Amino acid sequence: MKGLKFGGDMYVVLIYDIEVDDNGAKASRNIFKICKKYLTHVQKSVFEGDITPALLQQLKLELNKHIRENRDSVIIFKSREERWMQKEFWGKEDDKTSNFF
Amino acid sequence: MSESFYLFSDGELKRKDNVLRMTAPDGNFKDIKVNMTRDIYLFGEVSLNTKTLNYAGQLSLPIHIFNYYGFYTGSFYPKETNVSGNLLVEQVNHYTNEEQRLIIAKEFIEAASYNILRNLRYYNERERDLESSISEIKGLRNEIKRTSDIHSLMGVEGSIRKVYYNCWTSIINQEVDFEKRVKRPPDNMVNTLISFVNSLVYTSCLTEIYVTQLNPTISYLHSPGERRFSLSLDISEIFKPLISDRIIFSVLNRNMITEKDFERDSNYYYLKDGGRKKVLKEYDECLNRTIKHKELGRNVSYRHLIRLECYKLIKHLIGDKKYEGFKIWW
Amino acid sequence: MRVTGTMFYYYFVCHRKLWCFINNISLEDESENVLLGKLLDENSYGREDKQILIDETVNIDFIKDWKILHEIRKSKSIEEASLWQVKYYIYFLQQRGIPIEKGIIDYPKIRQRKDVYLEERDLDKIKEIIEDINYIAEQKKSPVVIESKICKSCAYYEFCYI
């Protein structure tokens, strides 16, 4: 799964909104756990990071098992590279995407 | 594409759901996105259990470990998933046959010394008078072809390095007391930096070898007993001038790293945490830098050049194409 | 050597790829395209019995009532290879007493399918290919690079052209 070649890499921001109902908590938990394998968790329901098209597709397929049509929504913002996306912090600056800890 | 994670904090590295989580003593944590991770570096005092290692193994994730002083102590090298019996036989054959071993070993030195020359030429064009060292190394390079055994080849290599290191005080703008390379333990700023960055290159080569079918313990220039993964030492030789040396020149000449970043212990002269982080940031950036590959016609990262070197070696070993070491072409 | 479906497929794609594959110099794990193909396989047909490994040799996408077998493909490129791979599957199963009637190649992305039958005259060719694959496997040296336009998207591209 590592060091995939070919197919342009990209930088994505993923946000989701899960309806709070009887199964909402479970759906939310599952979606959260899946996203964490691919992207960095930056805010409550926001993830971001580098990814390849195939891995994004894999993430989508994994999520599709838990997203409930007509209830939950996931939005992906795609950008060619991280540096082409201007990012500003208002309030607390928190460098969660760093690979240093 | 995939990423390396550098963990400096003390704490615990554990499997948490489907990720690896590093938790610091104060409760802060970092989740490592396992599907996107290539390898993990541990610099702090970290506890982990077999569950962590089993998970890392399952994910084929090498973990590189450094001690308190920032010296490399070893790697968790997961069970090989990519093995080829026939290739292993060829790898061994090329080692046991002196002549064939020498062909590969010479190519490593040819390439490494070429890259060394490139560094010297660069600085020679920037008001350092390195002309005489350059011609001396050129002379020594001519001897590579003529050597008839590994021992004398290593001798030539040693002489080239000596001339090279002698230029460092002219290349480096800061006042440094670098006279010769001292390894165990390094005794000054430059030696400490060399040891540190070289060990990083070694670990990166190891990570790349891991994903190929090459066996990391069978090497050609270094003897297989020298270190556990001696093939990694061989391949690092080629990339040290491009990666390590340039990083060292750059951090020193920009005064990013100075004497203040070091500390002297009774036995050690080592980089403090802050300095280590600065160097690692540079290192990570350097490996992600890309260059248009002239034969492949696509952009490849410096790190990927290491992988390509493994491919070339495999092709040589299976009798497909004679190995030519990587030479800086830009 | 047991000839697998993948070997049969590679035989039509590139002998060098076939040789590397047989010698376990595999680069498939690393490729975006291979991953995309795998995802397609895993997700195209809900939970029907997909991916059956028969006799530890051929891996068939799924079989309906043991009469029709399906193979899923991403695109029509190298159609001949897919065609012969399916013919080989039918042959392989018939040899083991399973009377497969036909195979179907599915292209879910373009919503097309193609029927494949094993005909009398194919038998000799299949036997010939099996022999040929064994011959390639025994070669000490790898076959040459094919320099084709399909190379660019192959998992072995860098390996071959470096």
TrEMBL record, chain B:
Pfam families documented for this protein: Cas_Cas1
One MF annotation (Gene Ontology) recorded for this entry: hydrolase activity
Cofactor(s) this protein cannot do without: Mg(2+); Mn(2+)
Record keywords: Antiviral defense, DNA-binding, Endonuclease, Hydrolase, Magnesium, Manganese, Metal-binding, Nuclease
Domain of life: Bacteria
Keyword Cytoplasm: no
Quaternary organization: Homodimer, forms a heterotetramer with a Cas2 homodimer.
Name of this protein: CRISPR-associated endonuclease Cas1
Gene that encodes it: cas1
TrEMBL record, chain C:
Function per UniProt: CRISPR (clustered regularly interspaced short palindromic repeat) is an adaptive immune system that provides protection against mobile genetic elements (viruses, transposable elements and conjugative plasmids). CRISPR clusters contain sequences complementary to antecedent mobile elements and target invading nucleic acids. CRISPR clusters are transcribed and processed into CRISPR RNA (crRNA).
Molecular function GO labels: exonuclease activity; iron-sulfur cluster binding; metal ion binding
Enzyme class: hydrolase
EC number: 3.1.12.1
The name this protein goes by in its record: CRISPR-associated exonuclease Cas4
Gene3D superfamilies assigned: 3.90.320.10
Swiss-Prot/TrEMBL cofactor(s): Mg(2+); Mn(2+); iron-sulfur cluster
GO biological process entries: defense response to virus
Domain of life according to the entry: Bacteria
Cofactor, free-text remark: Mg(2+) or Mn(2+) required for ssDNA cleavage activity.
Keyword field: Antiviral defense, Exonuclease, Hydrolase, Iron, Iron-sulfur, Manganese, Metal-binding, Nuclease
Family indicated by similarity: Belongs to the CRISPR-associated exonuclease Cas4 family.
